[in-house]
């Protein structure tokens, strides 16, 4: 049955937990139930909690009828990959669900999102999760990755991004940055100069006192 269906990876599945696109997995098949949510006799809420997850157990637990199964047929998206669920899948899903554009994020937290699999950047105090956008950025992945975990305001401003770019940013925002940006390594030279001058003064003072 299944080989004719596209294979859905975990990476693809995890994107569909939202009200605007909700997929669930039942017995290894992935279904798009977005437009069924408000029609579900068991209620919308219960289905939303299964977004981007394997809901087989819950589906069987409520002893759904053949009619319920017939509804599923027209909503098949594909077959879930045979690859095991990534270990941090629920953690990643939770992070996405908790996305809140006003969440306060420290510079320290920002700095921990600095890899290809988890890349956040700051542009003018707003924090964006660009992980999924890396492959799609018309300006290339590298420019974004270079700034992962860091402030990209300056480089961003150099390019005249379009309205479309700003719309994409709205969807990617995960919070706002708080606190003071840690400064780069302090230049030691001025302190060294002060110390040297201080030592010279003390030296000459001692010589002067000695000669008196
Ligand atoms: C994703 C595909 C699903 C479809 C198409 C579906 C469809 C239906 C349908 C048609 C009914 C009416 C009874 C029946 O004909 O079986 C029903 C009832 C119900 N469903 Fe689902 N369902 C789905 C998933 C789920 C899941 C994942 C849960 C639990 C987490 C759930 C919980 C319930 C409950 C609690 C009822 C009982 C409502 C009642 O008897 O008051 N459903 N569902
Ligand atoms: C979340 C942040 C970003 C989004 C959503 C975004 C989106 C886009 C989009 C949609 C375009 C196509 C042209 C347009 O519509 O404006 C573009 C082009 C470009 N972006 Fe970004 N961008 C982001 C961050 C950055 C950053 C940090 C840089 C760093 C320098 C950058 C550099 C570029 C460059 C160089 C182009 C031009 C590509 C070309 O015209 O050949 N972008 N970006």
TrEMBL record:
Membrane spanning segments where? 191-211
Q: Which GO terms describe its cellular component?
A: membrane
- Residues in Cytochrome b5 heme-binding domain copies: 5-81, 102-178
* Stored SMART domains: Cyt-b5
Instruction: Work out whether the entry's keyword set contains Cell inner membrane.
Output: no
- Transmembrane helix recorded as keyword: yes
Q: Write down the PANTHER family for this protein, in alphabetical order.
A: CYTOCHROME B5, CYTOCHROME B5 A
What protein name is recorded for this chain? Answer: Cytochrome b5 heme-binding domain-containing protein
- Which species does this protein come from? Paramecium pentaurelia
């Amino acid at each position: 049955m299944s080989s004719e269906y596209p294979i859905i990876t975990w990476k693809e599945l995890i994107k569909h937990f939202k009200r605007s696109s909700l997929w669930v997995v039942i017995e290894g098949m992935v279904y798009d139930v977005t437009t069924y949510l408000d029609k579900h006799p068991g209620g919308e809420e219960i289905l939303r909690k299964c977004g981007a997850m394997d809901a087989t157990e819950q589906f069987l637990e409520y002893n759904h009828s053949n009619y319920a199964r017939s509804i599923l047929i027209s909503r098949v998206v594909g077959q879930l990959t045979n690859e095991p669920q990534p270990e941090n899948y629920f953690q990643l899903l939770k992070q996405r669900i908790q996305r809140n554009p006003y969440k306060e994020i420290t510079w320290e937290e920002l700095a921990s999102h600095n890899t290809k699999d988890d890349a956040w950047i700051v542009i003018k105090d707003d924090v964006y999760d660009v992980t999924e956008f890396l492959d799609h950025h018309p300006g290339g992945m590298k420019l974004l990755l270079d700034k992962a975990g860091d402030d990209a305001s300056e480089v961003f401003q150099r390019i005249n991004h379009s309205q479309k770019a700003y719309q994409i940013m709205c969807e990617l925002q995960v919070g706002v940055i708080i606190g003071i940006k840690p400064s780069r390594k302090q230049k030691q030279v001025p302190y060294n100069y002060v110390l040297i001058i201080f030592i010279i003064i003390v030296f000459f003072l001692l010589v002067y006192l000695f000669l008196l």
